[in-house]
Amino acid sequence: MDPVIVLASEKDRNEIMALYKAQIGREFCPWTDHYPSNETIDYDFSRDALFVMKEDGRIIAAISLEEDEEVDVLECWDRNLTPSGELARLAVLPTEQNKGIARKMLNFGMEELKRREYVATHFLVNRHNVKAIKSYDAFGFNVVGECEMYDQEFLCYEKKL
Question: What is the pTM of this model?
């Protein structure tokens, strides 16, 4: 059965947390035992902003439509491209990586932002994460700046939807 992307629900919480925890310690991943947390999931649920890819009933990936004022106020974003939504917390099970799943999740996230009448999307990528950078290049994102947040150096990616 082909994978499907659906809005996450409360019954998915434990599996989503397990997916998030599976990322901890992976190269360029800043996540810890404290982030993302159940509170992060609650915030995403409250905004219908957390989506999961399921294959044969199990969650293999997740992505969130983020609202983060610290990121939104960065000077690099094009103020003519508003409203702009942020994609965040893209996670793919380690055993399912390198299969194009992250690209499918990004495509879905951008389509969902469009559906919600956003005109652009933006997000941060660790400047040393060559694998992610190559993946995002395929979408034609613009690198519009750099910043340091969460003890990491990031490239700021933006694209008109």
Answer: 0.93
